[in-house]
């Protein structure tokens, strides 16, 4: 398979066409951004770590019946995925209050939620990814009502699978962001990445943050935290 022209460059990844139909080539970058791109840095080894971590999570989800775009890892920083058209909705799932939710509602970070919360954000850099609800999604024609029901159902299932898997690794899954895409055949599947860039992971004993909040909040040891996640979920840390 050959890597062809670049289709898209995001904050943390590049996406290329390939010589094979319906297959994209993704390259994970070391670049880190936060607060809608206002804070930028390079974190050595992040691309390698997230490529491996995401491959592990997406393979686990596939095994458990959650169809997703991951096909195979082809190098330290690259993977081949199924071609999809990303639905411009960021689906955030929360088990514990943190980040923007804690801020918005004045809740203490770490407050356990009596039930999972699902939020939708409009994936639009110019607007700063505003929170939206089903009515906005309908008017913006981002997804049909039935598709949204399906997305929510998949998000719940993904949360159950990841929460249980991580609990066994002594990691609390605080919250995470998902993106879904449509295949050329019209099926909605999970896409993008699942990594410490897109999830909040806390050590279950010490509550130490093992995710991108270390970068957002200048807590230091960002790479070490990502390595720790990879080690605990069974990957090999040789970056
Ligand atoms: O900032 P906030 O608390 O809303 O983030 C919720 C979750 O979604 C966090 O795990 C964060 O890493 C993730 N997220 C993301 N990309 C965004 C916004 C949030 O991965 N653009």
TrEMBL record:
<dbReference type="InterPro" id="IPR001636">
    <property type="entry name" value="SAICAR_synth"/>
</dbReference>
<dbReference type="InterPro" id="IPR018236">
    <property type="entry name" value="SAICAR_synthetase_CS"/>
</dbReference>
<dbReference type="InterPro" id="IPR033934">
    <property type="entry name" value="SAICAR_synt_PurC"/>
</dbReference>
<keyword id="KW-0658">Purine biosynthesis</keyword>
<feature type="domain" description="SAICAR synthetase/ADE2 N-terminal">
    <location>
        <begin position="6"/>
        <end position="232"/>
    </location>
</feature>
<dbReference type="InterPro" id="IPR028923">
    <property type="entry name" value="SAICAR_synt/ADE2_N"/>
</dbReference>
<comment type="pathway">
    <text>Purine metabolism; IMP biosynthesis via de novo pathway; 5-amino-1-(5-phospho-D-ribosyl)imidazole-4-carboxamide from 5-amino-1-(5-phospho-D-ribosyl)imidazole-4-carboxylate: step 1/2.</text>
</comment>
<keyword id="KW-0067">ATP-binding</keyword>
<dbReference type="Pfam" id="PF01259">
    <property type="entry name" value="SAICAR_synt"/>
</dbReference>
<dbReference type="InterPro" id="IPR050089">
    <property type="entry name" value="SAICAR_synthetase"/>
</dbReference>
<dbReference type="GO" id="GO:0005524">
    <property type="term" value="F:ATP binding"/>
</dbReference>
<protein>
    <recommendedName>
        <fullName>Phosphoribosylaminoimidazole-succinocarboxamide synthase</fullName>
        <ecNumber>6.3.2.6</ecNumber>
    </recommendedName>
</protein>
<keyword id="KW-0436">Ligase</keyword>
<keyword id="KW-0547">Nucleotide-binding</keyword>
<dbReference type="GO" id="GO:0004639">
    <property type="term" value="F:phosphoribosylaminoimidazolesuccinocarboxamide synthase activity"/>
</dbReference>
<dbReference type="GO" id="GO:0009236">
    <property type="term" value="P:cobalamin biosynthetic process"/>
</dbReference>
<dbReference type="GO" id="GO:0006189">
    <property type="term" value="P:'de novo' IMP biosynthetic process"/>
</dbReference>
<comment type="similarity">
    <text>Belongs to the SAICAR synthetase family.</text>
</comment>
